[in-house]
What we know:
Distance between the termini of chain B: 7 Å
Oligomer: heterodimer
Strand order of the largest sheet of chain A: 6-7-8-3-9-10-12-11
Radius of gyration of chain B: 24 Å
Structural class of chain A: alpha/beta
Amino acid sequence: MSTASTPLLSVRALETRFVDDGVALTAVDGLSFDVGRGETLCIVGESGCGKSVSALSIMRLLPPTSRVTGRIQLDGKDLGALSEPEMRRVRGNAVSMIFQEPMTSLNPVVTVGYQIAEAVRQHEGKSWAEGYARATEMLRLVRIPEPERRVKEYPHQLSGGMRQRVMIAMALACRPRVLLADEPTTALDVTIQAQILELMRDLQAETGTAIVLITHDLGVVAEMAHRVVVMYAGRKVEEAPVGDLFERPCHPYTVGLMGSIPELGSSLSAEGTPRRLAEIPGIVPSLRAMPAGCRFAPRCPLADERCHAQSPPLTENRPGHWSACWHWERAGEAIHVHA
Amino acid sequence: MWAYVIRRVLAIIPVMATVAVVVFLILHLNPDDPAAIIAGDDASTAHIENIRRQLGLDRPVYVQFFDWVLRLIGGDLGASIFLDRPVLQLILERVEPTLALAISTTIFSVCLALPLGVLAAWKAGTWIDQTIMALAVLAFSFPVFLIGYGLVQGLALELDLLPVQGFVSLSEDPVEFLAHLVMPTIALGLVYTALLARMTRSTVLEILNEDYIRTARAKGLANGRVLIIHALKNAAVPIVTTIGVGIALLIGGVVVTESVFAIPGIGRLTIDAVLHRDYPVIQGVILTVSGFYVLINLVIDLTYTVLDPRIRY
């Protein structure tokens, strides 16, 4: 679980619960991970597995009905011990976040320049003029053409891809050490997706920002990640360096995720036998009714009695490759293809 | 932008023309005979006929209409039957108290309702929110005259802090002018404040769930900035609409308030005119108030383009 460098962001036993009608629902259950300087960690999983909630827990941006426990350290400093005003000095400064929906994540009645400048003003005590100068500079950095003109425009005058660039410019304006990116390309066209990912990679190379990239898209993972955390139903089920994960996944869920990616041209293969897309049968269990043993057991083709009764611990099966499965050695057989 | 402003201003013409037709017809569709009213109860038929000829009421309706409209454009609203004075002059004499009351009430309500509404939304579900909303329901439930007489009894008669009734012109004595406005403003403004506070709360509450509010918080902005720049600025269009509708509604309340506090304004003029069936005055008041409505709507429409950059015509 450790990397060669000392972790910049360290999350230990993160648990996020929502209190709803007196019932506490656990959305994130004991998540731990580290991210080093200049590293990109991808968190992968289906909708509702707790990936976004984890990021919002780190930022402390969840509604008051939530309860977050566990230890979150930034460069050795415990973020959980900070008061709300102290946490405000961290948000958008040392730790920034970009969101999935560029269309709705920018304030429609304020110019994009203002929205970037106010963050610079807040954290660096700069004047508005300096804030706007930084905003223009940031827009140029994220490769928006004519930044001097765009800085005075409103979000509705920009395309979706441009708006996500503005979001990135805003998040990076105060040179954060960690960037939490919650599905930053999901809402964008494929060609724009590739541009945004390339931009994030280039900016990371320039600034050394650590990136936690939340996605459900294994294509994005292959493109961006150094290391990958796979989450299922609020828990981490596998963690590995990206190459190792794709080469030899050690959890049936990861195998299932990989099986459900369509391959370009696969159905037109020369052999004339098109490959059926594999699927993971069933749905993610509800937060209100979690299975007792392994949470993936009800959907797992390898599940036996032990899986249904006992939750498998997270073990380091190979160096740097952790997984939580009783049958990790046979995980590759878990592919579920309909003939 | 300027093309829109010009088009919007030109759009006033058909609206005011429609109002003019309706106002003109009031006189001609009602069963009262203006000539008979002017002549008095004991007048002979010949006398009434004479007056009718003097007023031009014996001419065809369309001739009368165009004659009336032409005089209207020239600023001649006719003369009061009862007071025998030009209607325009009567209205101009009474405009100051009514305008002063409408403006002070709007300022009072907006200054009170916006902070309370935003605070209630920010503290939604807490005792602060519940207290503010309970007070709003309470304020909403009391009629203007009840609050008015309550204030007179308490502040003016028992404590002797404020004048009981009447109006003093601003040019005469600014301090007395304000002192005379306090109670009418509160009486008229509380209902309106309650309406605006509730509206502000629900609009801001909805906006606080928007993604861009989360973005603003993710930037590490202070709560005040998030609320005022990011939430309230987005809530401005519905809030300004409510303020505009409220100003229009105020005119109705003004009639009652002016009666309670014996303020010689347009409201009192209206009541007197209706009681005396003084049709030229009624027509003049309706035209003036309609013109005021149309003007307020114009200002609101133009304000939208400033408040929300997405609105372009």
